[in-house]
Design brief:
The protein is of the alpha/beta class and 256 residues long. The chain has helices spanning 49-54, 58-68, 93-101, 120-126, 141-154, 184-190, 211-228, and strands at 9-14, 28-33, 44-46, 81-86, 157-160, 163-165, 170-175, 247-248. It has one domain (9-253). It comes from Pseudomonas baltica.
Amino acid sequence: MTYPNPTTLFVGWDVGGWNCDRNPASRDALVVLDAERRLVGKPWRGNLRRTINQASSTEQFVDGLLRLCEIDPALHQAPRMLMGIDTPLGFSRPFIDLITRGIAVPTVGESSSNPYLHRRTEHFLFERGLYPLSPIKDMIGSQATKGMHVLGRFAPIREACGVWTDGQMLRAIEAYPSACKRSACIEALRVPFHVEEVSVPRSFVPGFEHVDAQDALTCALLAWAFEHRPQWLAQPMADIDPVEVWIFVPEDGLRA
């Protein structure tokens, strides 16, 4: 496959645990789209741990992702990549203060308002009818540390609240596919990947049969929207602590 050189590639990464090759139900999945939201290469599903460990630079990491998705890296001269990552990429400030400085909050309430279990961005989503998971209590700490490890190694610069970069070829945001289920904007972007058969509503074209690949596709579309339709997405509020970061979700998927 030839690919014109080069606009940004939009990558969706549905994150599996560190040892997800032992978990047939949930693994890492990657989907790469171009600026026209066309599939580049093939969706991939497996465990990214080896690719992460073998890369000694951002360029090698990006090259590894392209190879997994069967995209010939020779066709890309220093590609720009914007990645939407489906896992928590930060912890709450109260939790960080508790484990690093021993500072406790005065009181703790229900789970959805517990300052240790959830970040301000997650409280924002709770208030609008969504139920994001907690890396502390919902057994996704493996996925969260995997995502944060990748940022620390390959995109360590905080460009803005909830946006990471290496300053050259890779940028990343935290995405949340479940927030898109009520979003007409994102659903419209998913339509070209649906099977056009009335008898199988919302079934996906080959390569997207597994929900991991479907979530990776949604993450790639959220990354595309972040660059091309930022007005569709809820943006960080002024009082958000940058260390807690932000989950980018479509405004039309939120309840008033």
